[in-house]
Design goal:
The complex is a heterodimer.
Chain A (H helix, E strand, L loop, with lengths): L2 H6 L16 H12 L3 H20 L5 H16 L8 H8 L4 H14 L5 H14 L4 H14 L5 H11 L5 H17 L1 H5 L2 H6 L6 H17 L8 H12 L8 E2 L2 E2 L1 H15 L3 H18 L9 H15 L4 H15 L4 H17 L8 H7 L5 H14 L5 H13 L4 H18 L3 H15 L6 H12 L6 H7 L1 H6 L1 H7 L4 H19 L5 H14 L8 H13 L5 H18 L4 H10 L5 H14 L5 H4 L19 H9 L8 H25 L1 H5 L3 H8 L12 H13 L5 H4 L2 E2 L2 E2 H15 L2 H15 L10 H8 L13 H12 L4 H12 L2 H9 L6 H13 L1 H7 L4 H10 L1 H6 L1 H18 L1
Antiparallel strand pairs in A: 1-2, 3-4
Helix pairs in contact in A: 3-4, 4-5, 4-6, 5-6, 5-7, 6-8, 7-8, 7-9, 8-10, 9-10, 10-13, 13-15, 14-15, 14-16, 15-16, 15-17, 16-17, 17-18, 17-19, 18-19, 19-21, 22-23, 22-24, 23-24, 24-29, 25-30, 29-30, 30-32, 31-32, 32-34, 33-34, 37-50, 40-49, 42-45, 44-45, 45-50, 48-52
Chain B lengths: L1 E8 L4 E6 L6 H16 L8 E4 L2 E8 L2 E7 L5 H19 L4 H6 L1 H11 E2 L2 E2 L4 H16 L3
Antiparallel strand pairs in B: 1-2, 1-5, 3-4, 4-5, 6-7
Helix pairs in contact in B: 4-5
Membrane topology (chain A): Peripheral membrane protein
Function (chain A): Adaptins are components of the adaptor complexes which link clathrin to receptors in coated vesicles. Clathrin-associated protein complexes are believed to interact with the cytoplasmic tails of membrane proteins, leading to their selection and concentration.
Family (chain A): Belongs to the adaptor complexes large subunit family.
């Protein structure tokens, strides 16, 4: 950092600031006050006062340009400090339309800053921008172009594009440069329309002013990212420009700390890296110049100035992206080494970043620097550490995994950011899983992680560990074991000798149960997740444990159950583990009784449940082994998903008249159709029920009555019955058939049906058939199909069932079908019904849907008739609404098919009704 | 690409803010500035000048009481930006002659103009100080004639 500037930029040094002549006293006061604010609160209060003042000004009709521009500047301050000044945005627009260049400049500047919060401003400005683009004043044009880059939207591009294209050939480099920046803005917003003019800015690459070329490069950088193929032919030009720059042929003003135009070099390197990506031929054209730039950049290594490093870093990035060249990669890794070994944290950071990319294409890059890299983790700088962690994730392999994981864990302990910690823990776990060579190491490492960060871990790890222990084997890595874990072997010599006796899997189980039994015995407030694994392993394999006896483990588990630091979930698992241990070992502890007693009344239902389970199981010593066999995780349980053992039961119940199972989809379909039918019926029933009263057949009339029921309340007014009969008589209806079923308590026929339905379910099929047939014969003389099975009868009446032989399980539909079957149906209608059955059901539905809405006349008619027969309906609706709806459905197709036929009759009926009234 | 350039003082008060991305409401902007400033101010001198924040990288440099913060995307060259900040300060210094915080406040318009001459659309467009300052002198001449 440059010491000189630290001295110059001194806060206390405001005795003699460069105070412009146009600043008023009031403005100066404001600025000084803002400068004196010691806290955000003071500042906010000050600005709020200021805004109140400014609001007064904006209400004035005429403001002088000078005052206006000053107000705009004050507004700018308010916005800068985070206050909304949208009330006065218009002042900025007005100011931009002034003829004086200074006011115009202030106006444009403020507007372009305000605009990000107010999109309406853009449209207001487009006119003055268009005007200024044609101005003779270079600066006015420049300011307008600058504003374009900040405010333009896709819709506005056509309004200014032609002007900007002309300005690309302006004699002033300043304008050419600004016009190009405007083109860049257009290109970003609408690439297709601007790429047509690519030739125009290709010419700009050869501009005599290098700063214009520099801006043109921005456009090509954008294209190289999106459409690299379209500018491959320009690679030669880019290489040429780069050569020109490093050979020092530019004017000296473009040098920055003895580096020639560093930012333009960086831009060129970026473009070349995109163009050479995955393209060996282009890459070969680039290799030489990159090598040259890399070499040149070293010259600029001056203390505190990073321009040379910046270029070198860009070179490394480019080399990583280009088609790999071993020579360049080697150079790049040397360069990255210089960064990493540097004194400055900035350079270290970039070195680590560079290596992170480099190792992907050149894994040897980090070989020499591993120790330095790991040291970076010890640095107090958080940014550097995080970057280093990223690199470590990439360079981890089987040989350094244990070292790196250890370092990462110690880094993790210092972290406070929970979110970052969580992600890091899961990544470390993944790393251990991927690169861990040794199961023992893996289990120990996971335990270590769980001990400290158990709460941050995804629970999947529990199942992974369980699976590993139950299925994994120690044999594979026993050889490594001897080299690495000599100490451990000696410690548990007993275990070592036993290892050889068993197969790998058992050895692993012995190893892990010893570890987890120990964890349980430690009785430390570890995270629950660790205890859950421990308890599972102890429960499953306690009999294999060599360091503890089962009784010891059981005592420890009992202690754990009583510990305050475990969750209910863990406690429940502990109880199950205890059950398992008792059943595997056959040994029993007195404390278990206490546990059962204590937790049988636990508030947690899971714990209670498990207690009762344990109690139950322990009382059945004979079958304990069958319930909880040792190593049950590896015993495959055959699951008969078809539930074949139930077949016999199902067949029996079908024989006994049970209904066949209908799958959920079918049921939903049926319900939908039902719904359709009900809706349809609601519309029609009113028209159609009158058919009955005209008919001389009383049984026919009952067919039509039932649909009425859903219209009225089910409450029965007994007094109305006599009236009803009177009415019915009066319209010359034969009620002899009805009177049998209609009693004072309601419709006895239905009750009969209901009872029979229930009986039918209980009784055997044959009996039911006779019952049904009897009934059918009684009530429905016309139904020919009734001689067949009862089921067929259902199907005939219920058009929903497609298959005549299908048995229906649904009790509800069964019920209404049965009712339906009893309804006497005219022979004629029955035929129509049968016809419908043969058709596709869906067709039926569509015809119902297509029924045109009722005309006004029809509605009127309905109303009259409704009023007339109100009493009849209310008597008939003594049954539950839902049932009656289904009855309605049953007769739906009948009603549909006879609509036309009935229309005449209905009309007659209305005449009758009105007479009656 | 540069996402924003901020100048704040050591108390965290914003002295200049230029955004190259749209769609940031005032409240969000203030919250972002506060958060970034707080983090940068808490960093020590020896630590590196980069700060990874959400999806952007903040490169900052301190000059006495003023912090210059530049937010960039993933692909920007960090050291390039670090030197750009220095170039900006040098230019301000050349124009204002011994620039101080109050200079920037009194001449906020000029400060913005210098920035606009050096960077637009989030790209560095000019680093030649002579070229940068030339238009400013014209504006100065115009403003001096004002009554």
């Amino acid at each position: 950092m440059s010491q000189t500037y630290i001295n110059k930029l001194n806060y206390q040094d405001f005795v003699n600031p460069n105070k412009p002549n146009y600043i008023t006293k009031e403005f100066e006061k404001l600025i000084r006050e803002i400068g004196d604010c010691k806290s955000k609160l003071d500042e906010d209060r000050l600005i709020e006062q200021q805004i109140i003042k400014l609001k007064k000004f904006t209400k004035k009709k005429k403001i002088k340009p000078k005052q206006q521009s000053e107000l705009v500047l004050r507004l700018l301050f308010c916005q800068l400090l985070g206050h909304d000044v949208s009330f006065a945005h218009i002042l900025a627009i007005n100011s931009s339309q002034e003829s004086n260049l200074f006011y115009k400049f202030i106006g444009y500047l403020a507007a372009s800053i305000f605009i990000s919060t107010n999109e309406d401003l853009q449209l207001l400005m487009i006119n003055s921008i268009q005007k200024d683009l044609k101005s003779d004043n270079t600066l006015a044009v420049s300011i307008a172009l600058t504003t374009i880059t900040k405010i333009i939207t896709v819709d506005m591009i056509p309004a200014v594009l032609s002007n900007v294209l002309i300005l690309l050939k302006h004699q002033e480099p300043l304008i050419r440069k600004k016009a190009l920046t405007a083109m860049y803005t257009f290109l970003k917003q609408s690439p297709e329309s601007i790429l047509k003019h690519q030739k125009d800015f290709e010419l700009m690459l050869d501009d005599k002013d290098i700063s214009v070329t520099g801006v043109a490069l921005d456009l090509f950088l954008f294209i190289s990212k999106t459409k690299p193929k379209t500018i491959k032919h320009l690679v030669v030009s880019f290489v040429e420009i780069l050569n020109l720059i490093i050979s020092g042929k530019l004017p000296i003003e473009y040098d920055y700390r003895e580096i020639h135009a560093p930012w333009i070099q960086i831009k060129l390197l970026k473009i070349l890296s995109y163009l050479g990506q995955d393209d060996p031929n282009t890459s070969r054209e680039i290799y030489q110049v990159v090598q040259l730039v890399l070499k040149e950049s070293e010259i600029g290594f001056i203390n505190g100035i990073f321009a040379g490093h910046a270029i070198m870093h860009e070179c490394i990035k480019t080399i990583t992206k280009l088609y790999p060249s071993t020579k360049l990669l080697e150079l790049a890794s040397i360069a990255a080494g210089k960064f990493v070994t540097s004194y400055s944290n900035n350079l270290k950071y970039l070195g680590i970043t560079a290596l992170t990319d480099l190792v992907l294409v050149y894994p040897e890059a980090t070989n020499k620097h591993q120790i330095i890299i790991v040291d970076c983790l010890e640095d107090p700088d958080e940014t550097l550490k995080r970057k280093t962690i990223e690199l470590l994730f990439r360079i981890t392999n089987k040989s350094n995994i244990s070292f790196i994981v250890e370092k990462m864990l110690s880094y993790l302990k210092t972290q406070k950011d929970q979110k970052y910690k969580t992600s890091l823990v899961s990544r470390i776990l993944k790393l251990a899983e991927e690169h861990g060579t040794n199961i023992k190491w893996y289990i120990l490492t996971i335990n270590k992680i769980l001990q400290i960060f158990g709460d941050l871990v995804n629970h999947d790890i529990v199942y992974n560990i369980m699976k590993l222990i139950s299925e994994g084997s120690l044999l594979e890595d026993e050889e490594d074991e001897e080299d690495e874990d000599d100490e451990e072997e000696k410690e548990s010599g007993k275990e070592g000798s036993q290892l050889t006796k068993y197969d790998g899997n058992t050895a692993l189980k012995i190893f892990s149960v010893n570890i987890y039994a120990e964890i349980i015995s430690l009785k430390k407030p570890y995270p629950n997740i660790l205890y859950q694994i421990s308890l599972w392993v102890a429960g499953e394999y306690s009999y294999l444990c060599t360091n503890f006896t089962t009784e010891e483990i059981m005592v420890n588990v009992v202690d754990l159950i009583n510990a305050f630091y475990i969750s209910d979930e863990t406690r429940a698992m502990a109880i199950t583990a205890l059950t398992k241990m008792v059943s595997h070992s056959g040994k029993y502890l007195e404390q278990i009784d206490t546990i059962i007693q204590k937790y049988s009344t636990s508030r947690n239902t899971d714990i209670r449940q498990r207690c009762f389970e344990m109690k139950g199981i322990l009382q059945l010593p004979n079958i304990i082994d069958n319930i909880l066999p040792p190593d049950s995780i590896n015993t495959d349980i055959e699951i008969d998903t078809n539930l074949e053992f139930l077949n016999e039961f199902v067949e029996n119940s079908l024989k006994n008249g049970g209904k066949k199972y209908i799958s959920k989809e079918e049921r939903i379909k049926m319900e939908n159709e039902l719904q359709l039918g009900i809706n349809e019926n609601k519309k029609k029933s009113k028209e159609l029920r009158f058919e009955a009263y005209q008919s001389n057949n009383p049984q026919q009339s009952s067919t039509w009555r039932i649909p009425q029921q859903n219209i009225y309340e089910r409450e029965v007014n007994n007094n109305q019955i006599s009236n009803t009969i009177e009415i019915e008589n009066s319209i010359s209806l034969k009620v002899s058939g009805i009177s049998q079923r209609w009693t004072e308590t309601g419709y006895s026929g239905f009750k009969e049906n209901e009872n029979q339905n229930i009986e039918n379910k209980k009784e055997k099929g044959e009996e039911k058939n006779t019952n049904d047939n009897n009934q059918n014969n009684q009530n429905n003389n016309n139904n020919n199909n009734n001689n067949n099975q009862n089921d067929n009868n259902d199907n005939n009446n219920n058009q929903i069932n497609q298959n005549n032989n299908e048995k229906i399980l649904d009790v509800k539909s069964f019920r209404f079908n049965r009712i339906g079957s009893k309804e006497p149906i005219l022979e004629e209608e029955n035929k129509i019904q049968e016809k419908n059955l043969n058709n596709d059901n869906n067709n039926n539905i569509t015809t119902i849907k297509q029924k045109p809405p009722k005309t006004e006349e029809e509605l009127k008619r309905e109303k009259t008739v409704n009023a007339l027969f109100n009493g009849v309906g209310s008597v008939r609706t003594s049954r539950k609404k839902s049932k009656s709806q289904k009855v309605n459905l049953n007769s739906k197709h009948i009603t549909k098919n006879t609509i036309e036929k009935n229309n005449e009759k209905v009309e007659n009926l209305i005449d009758l009704g009105s007479e009656k009234n | 690409m540069i996402k924003f350039i901020l100048i704040v003082n050591k108390l965290g008060q914003t002295r200049l803010a230029q955004y190259y991305t749209t769609g940031l409401s005032i409240n969000k902007r203030v919250a972002l500035e506060n958060e970034i400033t707080r983090r940068c101010l808490s960093r020590k001198d020896k630590e590196c000048s980069f700060l990874e924040f959400r999806d952007l990288k903040v490169i900052y440099r301190r000059y006495a009481s003023l912090f210059f913060l530049v937010g960039v995307d993933e692909e920007e060259n960090e050291l390039g930006i670090l030197e750009f900040i220095h170039c900006l300060v040098e230019t301000l210094d050349r124009y204002f002659e011994n620039v101080c915080e109050l200079d920037l406040m009194f001449n906020i318009d000029k400060a913005y103009m210098i920035l606009d001459e050096m960077a637009l659309n989030g790209n560095i467009i000019e680093t030649n100080k002579k070229n940068i300052i030339a238009p400013l002198h014209i504006i100065d001449q115009v403003s001096k004639k004002l009554k």
